[in-house]
C-alpha cells in the first residue's frame, strides 16, 4: 500500500489523539472530514492502522516500578514460545526478540520491588528460560507512542 505525506500526517495526528474528529484532523491536513474518513478507513482495511486504544498512565494505576529483563533460553526455543509465555504474565508490557547474547528482551511493569521480584520469579520459572539479566528503570526520559519521525509532531 502506498502511504503519502497526508496519510502520514493523519497517522501522526491519530497517534497523538485517537479521539480527534475527522473534521479536526481534516482542518490540520487540508481535507474534508469525509476525505479523512475515507483515508482512515483505507488505512484500517489494509492493516496500517490496527486499532485504537487508551494509553493509561502507569502511575495512575500504581504500577510505577519497571524493568527490562534479558531472557536466555534453552536450545531451540522459538519466538512464538516466548510470546505465548510472555502473554501469561500480566506484568509483561512488551516482549521482543533481539540480537546479541540474549534471546529476548522483556519489559515488566509492577507496583513495587516486591511485585517486580515475584513477576520476575514467575518469568524465570518458564521451562525454556535458563537465565535472566535484569535492569531496573530509574526514570523515563523519552516515551512516544509514535511510529516515526512525524509522530507526535503533527
Question: Which short descriptors sum up this protein?
Answer:
19% strand; Tscrpt_reg_AsnC/Lrp_C; 154 residues; 4-stranded antiparallel beta sheet; DNA-binding; single chain; transcription regulation; alpha+beta; disordered C terminus
Largest sheet: 4 strands, antiparallel
Question: What is the number of beta strands?
Answer: 4
Following the backbone from N to C, one meets helices and strands in this order, namely HHHEHEEHE
Task: Provide mean pLDDT, rounded.
Answer: 92
**Cα Rg:** 19 Å
Structural class: alpha+beta
Strands side by side in the biggest sheet: 2-3-1-4
Helix share, percent:
25-40%
Q: Tell me the fraction of residues in β-strands, as a range.
A: 15-25%
What is the tally of helical segments? 5
Q: How would the global form be characterised?
A: elongated
**Measured distance between first and last alpha carbons:** 22 Å
Question: Low-confidence runs (pLDDT<50, min 5 residues)?
Answer: 150-154
Q: How does this structure look, described?
A:
Keywords: DNA-binding, Transcription, Transcription regulation. Pfam families: AsnC_trans_reg, HTH_AsnC-type. This is Lrp/AsnC family transcriptional regulator. InterPro entries: AsnC-type_HTH_dom, Dimeric_a/b-barrel, Tscrpt_reg_AsnC-like, Tscrpt_reg_AsnC/Lrp_C, WH-like_DNA-bd_sf, WH_DNA-bd_sf. The chain has a 4-stranded antiparallel beta sheet, with helices on one face. 35% of the residues lie in helices and 19% in strands. The C terminus is likely disordered. The protein is elongated, with a radius of gyration of 19 Å. The chain contains 5 helices and 4 strands, in the order αααβαββαβ. A hairpin with a 6-residue loop joins strand 2 and strand 3. With 154 residues, the chain is an alpha+beta fold.
